[in-house]
Amino acid sequence: MITIIAAIGNNNELGKGNDLIWYLPADLKRFKKRTTGHPIIMGRNTFESIGKPLPNRRTIIITRNTSYQKEGCEVVHSLEDAIELIASQEDAFIIGGAQIYKEAMEKNVVDQLDITKVDQDFDADVFFPAIDSMVWEEVSRENFSPDEKNLFTYSFINYKKTV
C-alpha cells in the first residue's frame, strides 16, 4: 500500500522557499508515528529541506541528477524506479514534494492519502494537487482546536481511492 502523507493549508498550500509554512507539533508527531519503520519516498528538494535521512525509515530520493548521492539514502531517477524498490514492502509513504505528489496521483500509484489540513490561508509557492472527490473518498477525520503547542485549528483526514 502506498500512501501520500502531507500537511496542507486551506488552499492546498504546502510550503514556501523549500520550507514548511507552519509549525504544528501534533502533525510532526503523527508523521513520525505513521512513517517510522516504513520506506519513505521524496524528491531531492524535500530531502534537502529535511537535511538528513530520517531515523528508522528507508529513505528513497528521486532526482534527475545522475551524480547525486547521499549517505544512508537510496537515490533513483524516476518515480517508477522508487516504486520498483519498494515493491516487496507492505506499506510505503510518499512524503513530498509537490511535483512528486502530482506525478504519483496522475500515474495512479497511490492507494490512500493521509492529509493534515491546517485551517488557515498561507502565503505559499508550492501547492498540493486538488483532491478529486470522484477519485478519493474521505474515510475518516479527526478535528482539533488550537492549543498551547499547536496554534492552528487542524484536521487529520484519511482518503481511500474509489476507482
Question: In summary, what is this structure?
Answer:
This protein has four helices and ten strands. With 163 residues, the chain is α/β, with parallel strands linked by helices.
Question: Mind summarizing the main beta sheet?
Answer: 8 strands, mixed
In total, the number of domains comes to 1
> Number of helical segments?
4
Helix fraction, binned, reads 10-25%
Strand order of the largest sheet: 5-4-3-6-1-7-10-9
Broad structural category: alpha/beta
CATH superfamily: Dihydrofolate Reductase, subunit A
CATH architecture grouping: 3-Layer(aba) Sandwich
Number-wise, the strands total 10
CATH fold type: Dihydrofolate Reductase, subunit A
Would you list the SSEs in sequence order as H and E?
Answer: EEHEHEEHEHEEEE
What is the beta-strand fraction? 25-35%
Low-confidence stretches: none
CATH class: Alpha Beta
Mean pLDDT: 96
Q: Which oligomeric state applies?
A: single chain
Taken from the alpha-carbon principal axes, the silhouette is: globular
Task: Give the terminus-to-terminus CA distance.
Answer: 15 Å
Q: Rounded to an integer, what's the Rg over CA atoms? A: 15 Å
What does this molecule look like?
The chain has 163 residues and is an alpha/beta fold. It has a single domain (2-161), classed as Dihydrofolate Reductase, subunit A, CATH 3.40.430. The chain has 4 helices and 10 strands, in the order ββαβαββαβαββββ. It has helices spanning 25-35, 44-50, 79-85, 98-106, and strands at residues 2-8, 13-15, 40-43, 59-62, 74-76, 92-96, 112-118, 126-127, 136-144, 154-161. The strands form 2 sheets. An 8-stranded mixed sheet has the order 5-4-3-6-1-7-10-9, sandwiched between helices. The chain is globular.
